[in-house]
Write a structure and sequence with these properties.
InterPro entries: DUF1214
CATH architecture of the largest domain: Sandwich
Strand content: 25-35%
Strand order of the largest sheet: 1-2-8-4-5
CATH class of the largest domain: Mainly Beta
Protein name: DUF1214 domain-containing protein
Structural class: alpha+beta
Shape: globular
Helix content: 10-25%
CATH topology of the largest domain: Jelly Rolls
Number of domains: 3
Domain DUF1214: 281-350
Number of strands: 17
Number of helices: 4
Length: 368
């Protein structure tokens, strides 16, 4: 059997195992909606593997969109555009781009992610307060090589992937609309073109896809055996922990403060969330399903940023998480789900972020 046929068979085995386990009782998936969404998640992760990891060449890197309105996983965001590119720690790269109206732009080095696997940690970040930007919004950054005073981000020996984040506070979803100009080039390029695709190279590409799918599904922590979550992850439904920085958690934004809570509501209930947006570069909240996929932000009000939030006279906000439009500002549509996740992000906040309040109330009393 050729290496390619063996790798293809291995990918099919991973997909079958993910469908059986990740979409099954081991991951506490029991009802039809959860079964359907688990399979949709697997399909989106497979799509990600094919787009970003199959043709993965750190010698000749290319930026790829990580998530889109039709490819969702790992906690995507209606107000952000994310890219990734393959890199290696012993190379030097030049990045050129333009802010394109983003209120926050950053580049993050992910360590230990060479073969489609989940990275070990975040190993460096450079945000737009740390590099020079021209009047037209353009910039140039060097990655790796000899240290430089400005516009430079170092690479560790096990650097494997670069993530870019571009956040927008618009009245509509930037993830669905915006184009962010971005290039990356290797300043230590190899001689000549890459070798033609052959049995070994195609097998390796398929293997990276299989590893990517496995690392984000069946190799992830099972619900029954997970270790204690970070302090910014709520443990009790219908409440939110104090927003905190995530540290070096892999794929997290080092400049952010996070607070994650879960709603659990009866058919006649709503969750009222109160708080105050801090002084910061970007702030938002979005609703996810249990597999960290955003709900349908193209067609429903399932997220809020500062531009789409109506404030109270004292500057605070009051949001209503409910299955139907309550007739008051700042509705977050649950799509009729009795449970789900709300994720708050606050980028480069000035000082501590105020705690969030939450109260379950009868839906019929919201507008009274």
């Amino acid at each position: 059997m050729s290496e390619t046929r063996a790798a293809w068979a291995g990918l099919l085995e991973v997909l079958a195992e993910a469908g059986e386990r990740f979409a099954g009782e081991e991951w506490m998936v029991v009802d039809d909606r959860d079964v359907a969404e688990a399979h949709r998640t697997i399909a989106h992760i497979l799509q990600s593997g094919l787009v970003s990891h199959a043709e993965f060449d750190p010698e000749r890197p290319v930026w790829r969109r990580i998530v889109t309105p039709t490819r969702k996983f790992s906690g995507d965001n209606a107000d952000a555009v994310y890219f990734e590119a393959p890199i290696r720690g012993d190379r030097t790269y030049r990045i050129t781009g333009n802010l394109a109206g983003a209120v926050y732009t950053a580049f993050t080095v992910e360590a230990g992610a060479f073969d489609g696997s989940y990275p070990d940690r975040t190993d460096g970040v450079l945000n737009d307060t740390q590099f020079d930007i021209a009047a037209d919004g353009s910039y140039e950054i060097v990655l790796g090589g000899e240290p430089r005073d400005r516009n430079w981000l170092g690479l560790s020996a096990d650097a494997g992937r670069l993530t870019s984040r571009h956040y927008f506070e618009w009245a509509s979803s930037a993830a669905a609309e915006v184009h962010v100009p971005l290039t990356i080039s290797n300043l230590d390029p190899p001689d000549g073109p890459p070798p033609p695709w052959d049995d070994a190279l195609v097998a390796a590409a398929i293997g990276r896809v299989a590893t990517h799918v496995r690392s984000k599904t069946i190799d992830g922590p099972r619900p029954a055996v997970r270790t204690a979550p970070p302090d910014w992850v709520g443990r009790i439904p219908n409440g939110f922990p104090v927003p905190q920085a995530p540290g070096d958690l892999a794929l997290s934004a080092a400049d952010a403060h996070y607070s994650l809570g879960r709603w659990l509501l009866g058919p006649d209930e709503a969750l009222v969330v109160t708080g105050r947006w801090p002084e910061c570069r970007f702030a938002s909240v979005c609703a996810w399903n249990r597999f960290q996929q955003t709900l349908d932000y193209m067609n429903r009000p399932v997220s809020r940023n500062r531009a789409t939030t109506t404030l109270e006279p004292d500057g605070s906000f009051r949001m209503v998480v409910a299955h139907a439009d309550p007739g008051v500002p700042n509705w977050i549509d649950t799509e009729g789900r009795p449970s789900g996740t709300l994720f708050f992000r606050f980028f480069l906040p000035e000082g501590d972020v105020e705690p969030l309040g939450a109260e379950v109330v009868p839906f019929a009393e919201i507008g009274t």
